[in-house]
Amino acid sequence: MSNYGNQVQLKVYQTMHNPDPERLPVVYEEWEERARHVLEDGPYYYVAGGAGGEKTMSSNLRAFDRWNIVPKMLRNVEDRDLTVDLFGTTYSSPLMVAPIGVQSIIHPDGDIASAKAAAAMNVPFITSSASSAPLEEIAKVMGDAPRWFQLYWNKDPEVTASFLRRAEASGYSAVVVTLDTPMMAWREYDLKNVYLPFLLGEGLGNYFTDPAFCSKLESSPQEDPTSAIMHWTQTFGNPGLTWEDISFLKEHTNLPILLKGILHPEDAKLALHYGVDGIIVSNHGGRQVDGAIGALEALPHICDIVQGEIPVLMDSGIRRGADVVKALALGAKAVLVGRPCMYGLAVAGERGVREVLQNMLADTDLTLALSGEKAIREVDRTNVMKAEDD
Ligand SMILES: Cc1cc2nc3c(=O)[nH]c(=O)nc-3n(C[C@H](O)[C@H](O)[C@H](O)COP(=O)(O)O)c2cc1C
Ligand SMILES: O=C(O)C(=O)c1ccccc1
C-alpha cells in the first residue's frame, strides 16, 4: 500500500527555496528535446524515428486520445496498491522497461546504466538480444532485481538455444520473443543519415560473447570484427519462421514465453492454440509496419479473444500515467515503456532513467487515485469511455 505519487510531489515542492541546479525535466516533451540536443543526428533519429512516414507512430499516440478516463468519486483512495501478479511473481507496479537494443549509441554506459536504474526503482528490465553489454553483465549489476530477456530468434538454432540457456542461467525470469522484426523496416531517417549502428559493431554484445555464434566464425570477433558483423547481418533475423516453430522454444526453455508484436486477433487465437504464456500487444513503437494499427487500438480486440486465459501486456506510445491507466482499463496487465527511458538515458544516464521511471510511477499512482481506484488490478473498462466525437 502506498501514496508514492504524493511523496514524489512533496519531494519536488520541498526544493522550492533550495532549487537543484542539476534539475532534470518533468515534461515528457522536454526530455525528448534535451535528448535531441545531446545526441548526434544518427543516434537521435535511430531512437526517435519510426518506419516510413511515421503514420503508426502518430496512430500510437492518437489512440490514447480516443479514450477518456471517467473518474469515480468518494471511493477511499488513501492507500494505493500498484502491484501486479504475473507468472506467479508479484511485481511492484505495472511498468516495465521495454527491450531496447544498441543503448551504447545513446549513452556510453548504455544498458548497464538503464538496468541499474530499473533495479533501483524495482521496475523489471527487459534485456534486448541486441544489448550493448552481454546479458550476464547486465544481470550482474541488477542483483536480485526483476529482469526478463528479449529474444531475437536467430537463423542459427544453436545461437537461439544458447541465448535461452544463458538467460535462464543469469536469473532472467521470462522470455519475450519479438516477432515483428525478422528484418528492419524501411526507416527513412536512418537511410537518409546512412546510419545503422550494428554495422559499427554496436549492440552485438550477446553475439560476440556467444560460444555458438563464435564457433561459426573463422576468427574471433576481436581479431576480425568485420567478418563477425557480416555473419551477424546474415543470421540476425529469421523470416522463415512459422507458428509450428514455437515448439522449439518450449523445448529449449522452462521460462514463461511471451510473444511481442501481436496485433491481429487471429494471431491471439494462434498464440493460445500454440500454448504460449503471454502476449505483448505492440507495433514496435511504430518502427516496423508504417500504417499498422495503433497498439492501444488493437489491445481491446486482442483481450476479447484471450478472455483472461493468459496475460496481455502492451507497449507503443506510453508517455504518461494516464496512458498507463487507459492501457490497463482496456485489458493490459502491465505496460512497457520504450523511448521515454531512452531520452532519460541520453540526458542523464542512470539518473535520467531513474527520474523518468520515478515520474511515471508517481503520475500513474496519482492518476489511479484520482480516477477513483486504489488498486491497479481493479482498473477495468468501467474506468474509460470512447471519445464521443470519434
Ligand atoms: C532505439 C530502439 C531500439 C529498440 N530495440 C528493440 C529490441 O532490441 N528488441 C525489441 O523487442 N524491441 C525493440 N524496440 C521496441 C521497444 O521494445 C518497444 O516496443 C517500443 O519502443 C515501444 O514504443 P515507445 O517507444 O513508443 O514506448 C526498440 C525501440 C527503440 C526506440
Ligand atoms: O531498432 C529496433 O527497433 C530494433 O528492434 C533492433 C533490432 C536489432 C538490433 C537492435 C535494435
Structure commentary:
With 390 residues, the protein is of the alpha/beta class. It has one domain (4-17, 35-372): Aldolase class I (TIM Barrel, Alpha-Beta Barrel), CATH 3.20.20.70. Helices cover 43% and strands 11% of the residues. Bound molecules: flavin mononucleotide and benzoyl-formic acid. Flavin mononucleotide is lined by residues 46-47, 60, 98-101, 128, 130, 150, 178, 260, 282, 284-285, 287, 315-318, 336-339.
Could you list some keywords that capture this structure?
16 helices; binds flavin mononucleotide; 390 residues; TIM Barrel; binds benzoyl-formic acid; 6-stranded parallel β-sheet; alpha/beta
What is this entry, summarized?
Belongs to the FMN-dependent alpha-hydroxy acid dehydrogenase family. It is built from 16 helices and twelve strands.
Layout of helices and strands, plus pairs?
Blueprint: H1 4-13, H2 28-38, H3 41-48, H4 55-65, E1 67-69, E2 84-86, E3 89-91, E4 95-97, H5 110-121, E5 125-127, H6 135-142, E6 147-151, H7 157-169, E7 175-178, H8 188-193, H9 205-208, H10 211-215, H11 225-235, H12 246-252, E8 257-262, H13 265-273, E9 278-281, H14 295-306, E10 312-314, H15 321-329, E11 335-337, H16 339-370, E12 384-386
Parallel strand pairs: 4-11, 5-6, 6-7, 7-8, 8-9, 9-10
Antiparallel strand pairs: 1-12, 2-3
Helix pairs in contact: 1-16, 2-16, 5-6, 5-16, 13-14, 15-16
Bound molecules: flavin mononucleotide (FMN) and benzoyl-formic acid.
Residues 101-102, 130, 181, 203, 284, 287 line the site of benzoyl-formic acid.
